[in-house]
Design a protein that fits this description.
It contains 18 helices and 30 strands. With 635 residues, the chain is α/β, with parallel strands linked by helices. The strands form seven sheets. A nine-stranded mixed β-sheet has the order 2-1-11-10-12-13-14-15-16, sandwiched between helices. Strands 17, 18, 19, 20, 21 and 22 form a six-stranded antiparallel β-sheet that branches. A five-stranded parallel β-sheet has the order 4-3-5-6-7, with helices on both faces.
Length: 635
């Protein structure tokens, strides 16, 4: 059955209740079933360099099964039981795939973003009580090994660190040079509580059949952190059943064993791990991971279309920032194998959607998911109408409601009325979403619907639209930034009385951090000095504000809280007008209104401007615009 409308989604649901579907109950059962069907077909490919003819390693389903089982056996031999944690801090590589799968079969797999600072990594290791860590052996141009050594020093329950040496993926002469220039990490001796061993050497000693009984049914098998920018990040718990649901959606609606999927997204994120990899495990599709850093890898954007041709890719997995970078390069290869591109993590500007389709002949499907729901919630239907700017139709067995908060409790919103997006589906772990019980308090409505913190609406056709974020998170290229980190840093400056941080529009990253401050009476400081101050006191580089404005007085609510909608309007006006001026366009934003359906909308005064030029310029941003005179006439 196709997935082209809300009716199709409901028709799949009415086939039978979710609980009655004959699906594997565990990850190992799902992997073993696919391996039995397609043992000699490609499962996972990785190339350390981005060239279309560069060396690559491909694991068949049988090979991936065997390596995964060996890894699971290794983890069990190291004392990892079903409730114990195997963390990994790795770039993309086949070992990351094997660790994720093997860790979740033996115990609980915990992917950690290797771009985090050591203290953030350590806090996650302590929160999850990790016993085993898989990470990189020291390697040129990366400090992951050093950061993990520093982190493990502050995570006393980690007793074993297994190191992956990426040198095996290189060809001579580079593979000869690495041992000569490999960075030294002298601090390992200080981690007396942890043994350091070779991951591949230890895995190879293990049998290729499970040395322990598979889990008898559903259980927590994954921990994914949702932040790390300030203090202790939240750690979300994912079950086998949530993982199976995400894999089933990918198999039922999208992928077969004949598909090749290119996934340059990181294997510490739910998009790559659950939406793509688990859908491949369910369907038998082949996933290609180009370079350890994915889209951030050297030459990936320049070689991307040639990689599509090399691997005969049928599905592209991407995000708006990557699409923007790709559209700055010619489509210089045969891409006729591509059927569809999937974009997530942040809203996609209309102009970027049109540009991609014109350049490639391929449509982009936008979707929505979140770590707290294991991932998938909705997407624009592959076979039906794609409403650009919406996040599509809820998947089968996913119930989305829009709730408004009132004095009498939550009330369900009407069609096109804005409220908080709340989700119920098999990926939602009701009552136990986070490892810390305190963080689950007030997270659900009616003990069923997960409160996402996103504001949105459902239209008459059942399409879901995001109009804002109740949580105030800044999403920079899909990376969540807590504005509190920026605000707390600025409030530490002697001259600052009040601070408010928001995401300002950005044509490449969707939004980037900016801040507004009100000074202490009689104090003096420049925006440039505050930006330099933030470079020292805002520890995560991505969270450092790109712009700081000093206002005589910040807008505040009746109880003295900084009123951020006004700050967002200020930033939209400044950024949009700057872009129009740079483009030589006389049109200007004269106001920003809060539309009940679209959220914040820039109103543009024509000033004799050509509409196509305004569209080309402002179409690169995610927030909508309209002619000011049209809005006035409509009023």
């Amino acid at each position: 059955m196709s997935f082209s409308s809300k009716a199709d989604s409901l028709a799949i649901e009415t086939e039978m209740p979710w609980e009655e579907r004959d699906l594997p109950k565990t990850l190992y059962a799902m992997l073993a079933e696919t391996t039995a069907r397609f043992p000699d077909m490609k499962a996972s490919s990785f190339q350390i360099e981005s060239g279309p003819k560069d060396k690559a390693e491909t694991l068949t389903w049988q090979a991936l099964h065997d390596r995964t089982v060996q890894a699971a056996n290794l983890f069990r031999s190291l004392g990892v039981g079903e409730n114990d944690v195997v963390a990994y801090i790795l770039p993309n590589c086949n070992e990351a795939v094997v660790t994720l799968l093997g860790g979740a079969i033996a115990g609980i797999a915990n992917p950690i973003n290797p771009l985090l600072e050591p203290e953030q990594i350590a806090s996650i290791l302590r929160e999850t009580d990790a016993k085993v860590v898989v990470t990189l052996k020291p390697f040129p141009k990366t400090d992951i090994s050093q950061k993990v050594v520093d982190a493990v020093r502050h995570a006393p329950h980690v007793h074993t660190v297994l190191e992956v040496d990426l040198n095996r993926y290189l060809s001579p002469p580079k593979s000869w040079i690495v041992p000569l220039i490999r960075p030294k990490v002298p601090d390992k001796a200080h981690n007396a509580h942890a043994d350091y061993k070779s991951f591949n050497r230890e895995v190879s000693k293990q049998p290729k059949t499970l040395s322990f009984p598979d889990s008898k049914g559903d259980r927590v098998a994954f921990y994914f952190h949702t932040g790390g920018t300030t203090g202790m990040p939240k750690v979300a718990q994912h079950t086998y059943s949530g993982m199976v649901y995400n894999g089933w959606i990918g198999h039922r609606l999208l992928f077969t064993e004949k598909d090749n999927i290119i996934c340059p997204l990181p294997l510490f994120h739910v998009f790559a791990c659950h939406v793509i990899l688990m859908a491949a495990v369910a369907s038998g599709a082949h996933v290609v991971f180009p370079t350890p850093a994915g889209y951030r890898g050297d030459g990936v954007f320049d070689n991307f279309w040639k990689l599509i041709e090399r691997w005969q890719i049928s599905f592209i997995i991407t995000v708006p920032t990557a699409i923007s970078a790709l559209m700055q390069r010619p489509v210089d290869a045969d891409v006729n194998s591509v059927q569809m591109a999937f974009s997530g993590s942040a809203p996609l500007p209309m102009e970027l959607f049109k540009r991609f389709e014109k350049a490639t002949g391929v449509q982009i499907v936008e979707g929505y998911g979140l770590t707290e729901a294991t991932c998938l919630v909705s997407c624009n239907p592959v076979d039906g109408e794609k409403k650009v700017g919406s996040i599509g139709i809820p998947f089968p067995y996913t119930d989305v409601k829009i709730y408004k908060s009132t004095n009498d409790g939550p009330v369900e919103a009407e069609i096109d009325e804005i409220g908080e997006i709340c989700v119920s589906n098999p990926g939602v772990f009701v009552g136990r979403t986070y490892t810390e019980a305190e963080k689950n308090r007030d997270l659900f409505y009616h003990d069923t619907y997960l409160r996402t913190g996103d504001l949105g609406r459902l239209d008459a056709d059942g399409y879901l639209w995001i109009t804002g974020r109740a949580k105030d998170l800044i999403i920079r290229g899909g990376h969540n930034i807590d504005p509190a980190e920026i605000e707390e840093a600025l409030l530490g400056h002697d001259a600052v009385a009040f601070a408010g941080a928001i995401g300002q529009p950005d044509a490449h990253a969707g939004e980037v951090p900016c801040a507004f401050v009100e000074l202490v009476g009689g104090a003096s400081v420049t925006p440039e000095e505050l930006i330099e101050y933030c470079k020292v006191h805002v520890h995560e580089r991505a969270a450092q504000p790109k712009h700081i404005a000093i206002l005589d007085e910040l807008p505040k609510t009746a109880v003295g809280k900084v009123f951020k909608p006004d700050l967002r309007k200020h930033a939209i006006t400044r950024i949009y007008n700057g872009a129009l001026e740079k483009a030589g366009c006389p049109a200007r934003v004269v106001s920003v209104i809060d539309d009940k359906k679209r959220g914040l909308v820039a109103q543009v005064e024509r000033n004799g401007a050509d509409e196509a030029q305004v569209t080309d310029t402002l179409g690169n941003f995610t927030r909508p615009w309209e002619w000011a005179e049209t809005a006035t006439a409509a009023a």
